[in-house]
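Database export, one record per block. Field names are fixed; values are copied verbatim from the stored entry.
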Amino acid sequence: MGIILSYSVTDRESFENIETWVKFANEHGGANTCKILVGSKTDMPDRVVGTEEGKRLADLYGITFFETSAKKGVNVSDVFESIAREIEQSIQRRNSVNPQAAKVQLHARQRIKKKKSGCC
C-alpha cells in the first residue's frame, strides 16, 4: 500500500535509478500506491545530489519528499509517519467511495514484553 523510494545523496546512480523504481512500483503496486521519495545520508560531506534536485523529482511524480540522516536521526520517523498517514488517507478515500469496503485500521506497534526465562 506504500512504497518508500530511497536514494543516497552521495550516489548519483542511485538517484538516477529512481525513475526505474517508480515505473516498477506503478506496474506491480499500482499507480495509486502511496509513494515517498527519500534522499538519505545527508550527514555525509560528499553530497552529489542537491536538495532541489530531489524536490523536483518528487514534484514530477507528485509524491512527498524528505531528506534524512539515520546517523543523526534526522527525519527518519517523519518518513514512516508520513507514509502511514498517506496510506490511511488513501483508505479513507476508497471507503468514502465504497462504504461497504472492508475497514483497515493502522495502529502503532506495541512493544511485546519478553517472558523471562526459567533458567537456573
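Remark 1: Residues 6 and 38 are 5 Å apart (CA to CA).
Remark 2: The mean pLDDT is 86.
End of record.
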